[in-house]
Amino acid sequence: MAVNLLPPDPAAVFPVAGIELGFAKARIKKWDRHDVMLMRLAPGTRVAGVFTQNAFAAAPVQVCREHLKRGDGIRALVVNAGNANCGTGEQGLAAARDTCRAVGELLQCAPEQVLPFSTGVILEHLPVDKIRGALPAAVGELKENAWATAAAAIMTTDTVAKAVSERVEIDGVTVTVTGIAKGVGMLQPNMATMLAYLATDAKIAQPVLDRWVKEVADASFNRVTIDGDTSTNDSFVLLATGKGAHAEIRDESSPGHDRLRAALIAVAQELAIKIARDGEGATKLITIEVEGAKDADEAHRVGKFIAHSPLVKTAFFASDPNLGRLIMAVGNAVPELNTAGVSIWLGDVLVVDRGGRAASYTEDQGAAVMKPEEISVKVMLSRGNARTTVWTCDYSYDYVKINAEYRT
Amino acid sequence: MAVNLLPPDPAAVFPVAGIELGFAKARIKKWDRHDVMLMRLAPGTRVAGVFTQNAFAAAPVQVCREHLKRGDGIRALVVNAGNANCGTGEQGLAAARDTCRAVGELLQCAPEQVLPFSTGVILEHLPVDKIRGALPAAVGELKENAWATAAAAIMTTDTVAKAVSERVEIDGVTVTVTGIAKGVGMLQPNMATMLAYLATDAKIAQPVLDRWVKEVADASFNRVTIDGDTSTNDSFVLLATGKGAHAEIRDESSPGHDRLRAALIAVAQELAIKIARDGEGATKLITIEVEGAKDADEAHRVGKFIAHSPLVKTAFFASDPNLGRLIMAVGNAVPELNTAGVSIWLGDVLVVDRGGRAASYTEDQGAAVMKPEEISVKVMLSRGNARTTVWTCDYSYDYVKINAEYRT
C-alpha cells in the first residue's frame, strides 16, 4: 500500500562509528520476526531525546526521561515492538526498569545508562520475561553495519522499513548521519514521531545536541500526521558518538555546524516523508505548503487542519478535486481570516483565487492534477511571512480495514 | 445505514400555529425531489439564530446575520439543498439577496425580512434562476401541517429525514415545539448544526429567545460531531410565533420558563442524536459522557477528542474494545492530566480503573458491550465537577465510500 516507498538498500544505510546493533525474536506477538532491537553505544556517546506530550505517556517514556535527566552517560537503547507498555501503572514502570537492568547486566553498565522504548498495543502488560530471554541473542549479534535490519525490527503496522543515511564533510573529515523511524498510525507527533533514532559519529557538544533534537523534530517529525492522534509512546532520540576526527561542534560558529544540522534535518525529513508514504492505508502522499501566515503557529495550524480533515483525506483518496473541503478546512483553522486573501494551488493549478473559485480553473485541470500518487497543495493566506510544509496521506478503505482489524 | 432511525411519523410532528411550509423542485442537482423549502412566518414572529464560526461563512449565512441585525421582523425563511453558495464572493451575496427579493415579492414583504439558507456543494455558483422559478409553486403549497415534508426537503447526504415535536403546558395553555434538522457530514457544529430550525407558538420575549438560541445550541447541536469538520453553512434558528394564549415569557420567573426551555433543549437534543444516528456511513451511535472535569470546556474537550479520533471511531466500527485508543484520546485532550484519576466505563463495564486496565475486566465483557448498535462511554477524570455528553458515530467503509464519491 505504501506510496512509492521501497525498503532501504542495506548498502546505502551507512554504519555509524561507535554504534552496534543486535536483534532477537522475543515473540511478544505471534510474529515470526525480530521484535527486539538493542543498540550499544560507545562510551562518550551523547544523547538527547524528545517525547510525547500525551498525559498517558508510556512507562518506557517516563523511564527514558528519568535516565536522560541523570546525565550518567547512556550506553544502550532497547526497543520492543508489539506491546506499548502504556497504561500499565507501577507494574509497567517496573517492567521497563527490569528490561534496563537485564540490558545493563549483559552489557556491563548501570540500568540507568539504558533507555527503553516500546511500541504496540496499549494497556496490556509487557511480557518482560520474553524480552529478558531474547536479549542474550541480541547481544550475541551486535554489529555496526545493521541499520536496515534495525529499521525492520521496530516496525508495527509499518509495511516497509524506513532508514536514511547521509555523509557530510566537516573540516575535511567525513561523518555519517543515519536514521531509522517507524510509524504509521496513532500518528501526529507532538515533539517526536512514534519511534525515531538519528545517529551520527560527529562530535557535538551536549547543549548543541539538546537544541538540535528539538529543532530537527520541529522541522520533520512534528510536521507529519497520519490521523491526528498523538501516540502515548512517541520518542525521538538523537545520538552523537563523537568518533569523527574533527573539532567538536560547540556553537553556531563551529566549522560544519550548519552543514551537519542541515544533514540531520534532511535525513529526519526524509524519514518523516517515508512515514507519510507508509501511513495506514495510504494510496497518496500529500504535501501541504502554507505561505503568508501571520506566524509559524498559524502556518502549522492551517497545514494540520487540512491534513486532519477526513473529508479532505477521503477526497484525495478519490482523486476528487473537492475544493470546498479545502476552503472549509482553512476557514476552520483561522476563523478571523480575511477570505479574500486566500489562494490555493493543487500542484501548479490555481484553483482558489482570492477567496473564490479561480476563473481559469476547469474540472479537467483538477482531475488531472489529482490523479498522481503524489500531490501538493499550496495555500497562500496573505497575512504575513510565515510558512511551513506538512506531510500526510489520504484515507482509504484500507485505513478503516487496518484499524478495524488491528487487534485481531 | 442510519442507526435505529426511522423517518418521522407526520402525525407526530405537530404544526406550529403561525408557521406555514411550502416546497418545490428547483432541480439544483439531478435529484427528482423537493430541494427548496419555504417557511412563511406570521407577523410578530420572533427569530434568533446562531451561525458557523468558519471564516468562509457562506453567502446566505452573511445575509442572515445582516437581516437579523436589522430587527425589521423576519417574515420568511427560504432553504435550498444541493448548493451551499459558499466561496462565491460578491456574486454569491447577490444570489442570496436575489433569492430574498423573489420571496419578498411573492409574500409581499421586504427582502430584508427574509432569511436565506443553502446547503450542498461549496465553491459553485447558486443557480438562482432555478430557485426563483420554483418559488411560486412553493408559495402555492403553503400549509401549516407539513413539517415532516420540510425535514425531507432540506436533506443532502442525510438518509432519513429528522423532525421532532413536543407539547408543553404553560399556565394551562398547550404550546407546541417542533424542530427539523439536517446533517450529516462536515459536521462538528460550532454554535449550530448545518441546518436546524426549532419553532414554537409560545410567546417569548426577544431577549429570552436570544439567550435560549445559544443555550439550546450548546446543549444539543454543539455536542454532536460526525467528522470534526465545521461546515461553512451551519445555521440554527429558533422561531417563536407568539400565537399561544399565555402570558409572554419575559424572564426566569415567568410561568413556563423552565418547562419550555427544557422542551426546546429536549427537542434539539433529540434532533442532534438523530444527526449522529445518520452520520455518514454510521453503523453505531456512540454516547460519550465525561464527568469530573475541571470545567465545562475541559469536559467538552475530552468528549470531542474521543469523538474525533479516527482510531477510536474505527475500533467502534469493528466492535473492538480497543481501550488503548480511548486513553490515548483522553491523554491528548488534557496533557497535564493525572492519569491515576482516570476511570472509563464501556456501557456498565469498568474497563479502565484509576489509569490502568481494570483488574475485573475481561475481553469477553468488552466484546459483549461493544456488540450493540448503541454504545456508551463514560470517562471519570476526578479533577472537578463539570460534566457533559457528546454524541457521535463510528467510521465505516461506507464513510470513505460516501465521501470519496460525494461529487460523482
TrEMBL record, chains A, B:
Residues the entry annotates as binding substrate: 156, 182, 193, 280, 403, 408
Domain of life: Bacteria
Site, Cleavage: residue positions: 192-193
Record carries keyword Thylakoid: no
Pathway(s) annotated for this protein in UniProt: Amino-acid biosynthesis; L-arginine biosynthesis; L-ornithine and N-acetyl-L-glutamate from L-glutamate and N(2)-acetyl-L-ornithine (cyclic): step 1/1; Amino-acid biosynthesis; L-arginine biosynthesis; N(2)-acetyl-L-ornithine from L-glutamate: step 1/4
Stored InterPro entries: Arg_biosynth_ArgJ, ArgJ-like_dom_sf, ArgJ_beta_C
GO molecular function: L-glutamate N-acetyltransferase activity, acting on acetyl-L-ornithine as donor
Annotated site residue numbers, Involved in the stabilization of negative charge on the oxyanion by the formation of the oxyanion hole: 119-120
List of catalytic residues: 193 (nucleophile)
EC number: 2.3.1.35, 2.3.1.1
Reactions the enzyme catalyzes: L-glutamate + acetyl-CoA = N-acetyl-L-glutamate + CoA + H(+); N(2)-acetyl-L-ornithine + L-glutamate = N-acetyl-L-glutamate + L-ornithine
Transmembrane regions: none
Cellular localisation: Cytoplasm
Keyword set, alphabetical order: Acyltransferase, Amino-acid biosynthesis, Arginine biosynthesis, Autocatalytic cleavage, Cytoplasm, Multifunctional enzyme, Transferase
Quaternary organization: Heterotetramer of two alpha and two beta chains.
Role, per record: Catalyzes two activities which are involved in the cyclic version of arginine biosynthesis: the synthesis of N-acetylglutamate from glutamate and acetyl-CoA as the acetyl donor, and of ornithine by transacetylation between N(2)-acetylornithine and glutamate.
Family: Belongs to the ArgJ family.
PANTHER family reported for this sequence: ARGININE BIOSYNTHESIS BIFUNCTIONAL PROTEIN ARGJ, ARGININE BIOSYNTHESIS BIFUNCTIONAL PROTEIN ARGJ, MITOCHONDRIAL
Protein name: Arginine biosynthesis bifunctional protein ArgJ
Organism per entry: Piscinibacterium candidicorallinum
